[in-house]
Predict the structure.
Amino acid sequence: AEAFAQALEAEGPGAGVERRIVLNAACGAGVLSCLCSRLGAARVFSLDTSGAALTLASELAAANGVAEELALLRGDASAGAANAALACDVLFSERLVGDLRYSPALLHLLTVRRLHLKPGGRILPPSAAVVLEAGDFAAEQELLHRPRPALAGLHWGALA
């Protein structure tokens, strides 16, 4: 989430999500949806197939004062035909941002792009670098339980 926030902020005013309609095609807990709302998106549609994820996203949005700007919807944005109500200027998938590799999440995002991204719209991130390293991930377990620092002023308490 931090890298996503830095990328949006680095683009400067008007280049990111300000005054744009954003679709988070697999929102999970909705952290990036909240961030887009805080950065001035006109509207953020947050879809997920998991009711539990949407409940968490709702709690996080309320805790951060952006519940009115988010439309939390249960469903699969890649299923069915194009839906004019979900036409967006900016598209991303929170699950893909957390797992940037060739996976079903990438195929899902490409289908959603075809169905819902307006002509001239953007996918975020626009590119990614993949770095492979061998490592011991045992210490990663400890990171899950560390307090998270504030990111762009968002409150993480609803994720606990």
